[in-house]
Amino acid sequence: MSDRGWAGRVLPSGEYWSRGLLGVLTAVVLLWALASGVGTALAASDTVTTELQPGWNLAGWTEDEASVETLFAAIPQLVVAYAWDADLQRYRLAYRDGETATGDLETLSPGIGLWLFLEGEETVAWERPLVLQAGLAELRRGWNLVTWAGDDGIATGVALAELEGILLETLGGDGSAPQTLEKGRPVWLRISSAKQWWQLTPPPRIEFRGDFTPAQMRERRAYVDDVVAFFVRRHGVAVPGLTVLFGDEEADMTCGGYAARTLFIRNPCITALPHEYSHAVQHHLAVRDAEGNWGGGRGEERIGPSWLSEGIANYAAAVYEDLIGIGSLEQWNADALDVGLANSNSLEAIETNMGVGGDAGANYHLASLVTGWIVENQGEAALYDFYDVRNEVFRWRSAFHEAFGMPIDQFYKRFEDHRASLAAQRPQVAGKVIGPGGEGQAGVRVEALPQGEGKAWRMNTDDTGAFSGVALEGTYRLSLFLGDTPCHLGWYGGEGYTTSRVAITVLDLPEDARTGIVIQLPRPASELCTTIRGALVDVEGNPYTEPPWVVAWPLHDQDGYTGKDGDGSGMFALDVRTGATFELSLHSYYVRECVVSPHPSLVPDPGAKARVSVGEQDATGIVITVTTGPRRIKEAVGCTAAR
Predict the structure, then answer these.
(1) pTM metric for this prediction
(2) Helices (H) then strands (E): counts for the chain
(3) 451-471 per-position pLDDT tens digit
(4) How far is Cα 341 from Cα 427, in angstroms, rounded to an integer?
(5) Torsion sign over Cα 6, 12, 14, 15
(6) If you write DSSP's letter for every residue of 66-100 in order, what string do you get?
């Protein structure tokens, strides 16, 4: 039998699809299918029925991936089956050989088109499930035989509108251009370039703000298609009514974000897309109505614990990046384990705020650690199952109990026991922070900051001044801060406490892991910090309500800087160490110049920099006059002292 006759006309010879970024993205779809397990039906009753006549028939495989034997078992009259291999631009064959099937067509994927030859004289009604994955077609350059899974009887031009610009030819089974498409029936498409075609809901609307070349826009469109395909293949879900906005300069975020059915992706941070799309998936599942559309009422409410939402998004992005070869799931798990074990926060502490403790990065690793634990014990499906349940249950805690089989408090206890058992197998750093009389200092943050290789982590003293944590590999200095403030108290070094960098004790971990560290402060921790307070005004003396990040940079031996977002009132307060001098600056999109009015705490400087010296008392009443201009890239602007 000829490879070229089944479309009713001669087909062109095959070409291998060109590689490059688009090739790398689309080539992993087979991996997704193999990794995803079973598919997800559109609804419990979603089936498709095709009338098969004796002789040759064109029909589509709409079920989960299966062996070709499944097809022959479902249709006893079937003798021969052909499927088109779009990669090789040729047919694959399977035929009945006694009780088995023989040939090079071995696996049936959702959405592939089939030529079927039936023996006998009677019509066969072939009824089969229609899974979501059947609506995702992996189009290759050249000819494709693709099953239509969308609305039955839709006009061909409407159905194929998304392929405008790459669609060269459309043919039905009789070799003529079809006027309408039938659900469950394949159609021949000749395509000029590869594309992942999502048939069942409108694809995300893509907008570009800023300067993008045509090649960059094509790359980003393909990336969106690929992420949508990943979630369809892996989790059986697609988000309708979504907008993806690239290069949004108004979005004040590191790389990306999700809000109001819009994904904001900064250029060139396109790798943030799978993480943010996962948030859209969670939101859609939790608020959709009975027809699967976006619901109302609870649309913008918190839909569950922050650690679960962020952990799921982290996991989805890690799996995706592992599959396309730009990341390693093994390394992601290792990082989550290292930093998650070293994080002194509990899951309950980050239930509503991932920034608790001032180290959101460590909290995200903790969220990743617990998500990996859920996957290990309950499988990937449990992650998004929660949001299906959340749609039906008023309180998320009740939804959690139903989805994970235990109350949230019991879950927290089990996870902490699990984390403690893992931590016990690792080297520890532990000690005590005491005051001048030996009394324990509660509320001191002990940060392990890498001197070279390593990952930062932190510990907090309890009511007795004790602290402990898992030691991460690397070289570290132990830096002390007051509570959650940026006020730096000093370091561990010398006799146990020092404010001089040259006296810092460097720990080479895990070899130098220690559990008997004693750091004695010269004064109670609360007396080692004070505050710089003041107001921001515009050139007319009115409160400056476009709040910048107000920063006090230390000039003496300290770690980091102290800074805080303005609250819109024009007032600021910065926690700093007593007996030190700081330079003031503003971090803003709009500030061009900031001038500090004369103040007793200002230190004269030949360069006219605004330097504030703080003693035992707060430095209050400082006034900074702000000159602004058009928006630009956010940057630090040093303040000068008024002459």
Answers:
(1) 0.71
(2) 12, 38
(3) 987 888 889 999 999 999 998
(4) 11
(5) negative
(6) EEHHHHHHH-TTEEEEEEEETTTTEEEEEEEETTE
